[in-house]
Amino acid sequence: MNDDLDPMRPPTSLHEHRPASPGRLGLALCAVLLTTACTDRMSSSDDRWSRSGELIAMSGGEAGARYACATCHGARGEGNGFDAPRLAGLPAGYLQKQMEDYAAGLRPHGVMRDVARFLDSHERVRVANHYAALPPRALMPATQETIDAATPRLYARACQQCHGVDGVGTMDGPPLNAQPAFYLIQQLQDWQVSKRRNDGNHVMLKVAQQLDAGEVRQLGLYLAGIPPRPASPGR
Ligand code: HEC
Ligand code: HEC
To answer: Among residues 71, 105, 137, which one ends one of the domains?
Structure first.
């Protein structure tokens, strides 16, 4: 990261003063003029919408490069192997919910709060759809630490019901496989101290508070080492 860009401190007025997006401007013009050119543009709207999800991911859209998701989450949504998770192949609904939760402060994080707040709800949907459609991939975990034989059993007993066999995710919990170990450990620690509070009925708070520090670390390392794979159809 380039410190000069300082993603932590965008001007607070950024959101209010942003110029109208070309898309919105286009719609407004169409409404006023109803020209053939506008009708043509409308008919290709599907393309434009999916493209704009990719545009936000790669360029940061109107917010500029410091908010380009790819800077931290990788060119293909693979994450940075450290604190920024992979986004590729995660369910669109889950990704979108996280951005709502960052914006609302239920999941406190300085950078992601600003990133999410700069996107309007349509843009959040579009960028979520973009990442959900990318093939899951991840960086190879760098660790040589061994996984206790007890850890897969702990996972099967305490986590698998919601996060699926090998952490591929289910309807009741997002994929955890091939996420950076540091990131997974951080999330569990955040739940333990009620910093992350965006889980319905505090499911993850209750789960996390039953784990000791060694188990949190082991579960993070274990899940990070499971290769990415396409989600099960039942998710
Ligand atoms: C400057 C770095 C940076 C940029 C730019 C950035 N992110 Fe993030 N993102 C992070 C970090 C770090 C986290 C983990 C935060 C935490 O611990 O909650 C994260 C977490 C997320 C999550 C939560 C994923 C999960 O598995 O729960 C989503 C979704 C997300 N980012 C989407 C985006 C999108 C979309 C963009 C671009 C519009 C973006 N991010 C731009 C650093 C960044
Ligand atoms: C009763 C269901 C349930 C059980 C059991 C459960 N989880 Fe979760 N977990 C969830 C839900 C739901 C979320 C997503 C919450 C949200 O919307 O942010 C989640 C999210 C997570 C995340 C954050 C993923 C991300 O991308 O940020 C981690 C890490 C996690 N769980 C680890 C575990 C571990 C480890 C266990 C077992 C020790 C476990 N969970 C057991 C339901 C469950």
So the answer is: 137
Tell me the CA–centroid distance for residue 209 and ligand 1, in Å.
24
CB hemisphere CA count around 81 (13 angstroms): 7
Q: What is the pLDDT of residues 46-77, one digit of tens each?
A: 555 556 899 999 987 777 788 899 999 999 99
Residue 160: half-sphere exposure toward Cβ, Cα within 13 Å:
9
Question: pLDDT digits over 147-156, tens only?
Answer: 999 999 999 9
Q: Binning pLDDT at 50, 70 and 90, where does residue 163 land?
A: very high
In the reported structure, the alpha carbon of residue 228 is separated from the centroid of ligand 2 by a whole-number distance in angstroms of: 17
**Rounded-to-integer distance, Cα 89 and Cα 6, Å:** 29
With a 6 Å cutoff on the Cβ, whether 73 touches ligand 1 is yes
Give residue 34's pLDDT: 40
What is the position in ligand 1's atom list of the atom closest to the CA of 116? 38
Q: Are residues 215 and 127 in the same domain?
A: no
* Atom 41, ligand 2: residue with shortest CA distance: 159
Residue 153 covered by a domain: yes
Centre of ligand 1 from the C-alpha of residue 190, in Å: 15
Ligand 2 centre to CA of 163 (Å) is 7
**Count of CB atoms situated within 10 Å of the CB of 205:** 16
pTM, entire model:
0.84
Residue 1 lies in a domain: no
Range of the domain at 166: 141-228
Per the domain annotation, does 97 fall within a domain?
A: yes
